[in-house]
Amino acid sequence: MHICRSIAEIRNVMWDLATDGSVGLVTTMGALHAGHMALVAAAADDHDAVVATIFVNPTQFGDAKDLENYPRTEETDLAMLRDAGVAAVFIPDAAEIYPDGEETIVETTHLANILHGEVRPGHYRGVATVVTKLFNIIQADAAYFGEKDYQQLAVIRRMVRDLHMPITIHGVPTVREADGLAMSSRNVRLIADERYDARVLHLSLTVAEALIKEGKTVEQAAESIRGVISSKRSCKLVGLDIVDAETFAPVTGVPTKTIGIMISVQFLQVMLIDQKEIAI
Ligand code: PAF
Fold first, then answer.
1. Phi (first) and psi of residue 161, to 5 degrees
2. CB contact at 8 A, 262 and 273
3. φ, ψ of residue 40 in degrees (nearest 5)
4. Who contacts 81 (Cβ-Cβ below 8 Å, separation ≥6)?
C-alpha cells in the first residue's frame, strides 16, 4: 500500500493506478471503524483499485476544541486499510491542502445552510471545499460516502452535479453497533451513561418510521422522536428535520413521497447525528 503525504506523491501513484483500471475513492478523517470499511468494501466491489484519504479537515469544524479532540489513530487506520487491500492512502497535512489559506471556497449556497447546516454554520462549506480539493487531486472514477450524514451526501451530490465534476457518487448504508447506534469516530467520546443512552437515537427513528408506515403525520412522528430522546437525561435534541428526500424541502402532514428524517443530539462533549430514509 502506497502511503503518500504530498500531492505530488499521490498524483504519481494515481498515474499508474488509473492506467491499470478504474479507481474508487473513500475520503475519511481517520479514526476508522466498520462504517468506513463498508465504504472501502463497496469501492473494492466496483473498481480495480481503492484509494483512501485521511485528513482531519480544519475548515469543517466550527469549534477549535472539537477539532483538537477529534480522535487520531493513524497507525491502526493504516493497518485496517492495508488489510482491506487498499492500493494507496493520501495523508496530507493542513499546509498541503490549504497552502495559502481559504481564499477559494466551494459552497452549495442553499443546501449547506439549512437544517444541520444551521446548527453547524460553515460545516458543509468546509466539507464541499475539501472534497473538491481531494477530487481534483486524486481524480478517481467514483467516490463512496456514508448515508449516515444524509445532508453531507446531498451536498456532495449537488456540488458534483452543479460543477460538472467527472466522478460518480455512491451512498452506502449506515453500519450500526448491536444496539443500533450508528458507527461514528465520535462515539469513543461518549462517557459510560451517554453510550447507553445513545441507543435512543436509532430507536427514536425506528419508532417514527413505524408511525409513518401506519399512516401518521410527520408532526406525530416528530413528537414521538422528541419524546423518546428526551426520556434520556444525557441527550439533548438539537436538530430534527423531516424533509422530502429529493428536494430537502420540509414536509408536513401525511407524506406522499420518500422522506428523510435527520436528527442531531448533543451530549456533554460530542454531538451525534443519525438519519432514516422512509420510502412511501
Ligand atoms: O465524512 C467525513 O468523514 C468528512 O466530512 C469528509 C467527507 C472526509 C470530508 O472531510
1. -70, -50
2. yes
3. -60, -45
4. 1, 32, 40, 52, 89
* Mutation probe of ligand 1 site: the residue of 25, 26, 29 with most atoms within 8 A of C-beta: 29
pLDDT tens, residue by residue, 219-251: 999 999 999 999 999 999 999 999 999 899 999
Gyration radius of the chain over CA positions: 19
pLDDT digits (tens, 9 = 90+) for 18-53: 999 999 999 999 999 999 999 999 999 999 999 999
What H or E segment, with its residue span, contains residue 218? Answer: helix 218-230
CA of 29 to the centre of ligand 1 (A): 6
Parallel/antiparallel/unpaired status of strands 142-146 and 259-266? unpaired
Give CA–CA dist 279/243, Å, rounded.
12
Contact indicator for 55, 29 with CB cutoff of 8 Å: yes
For residue 145, give Cα distances in angstroms to 68, 78, 131, 168, 222. Answer: 24, 19, 11, 11, 26
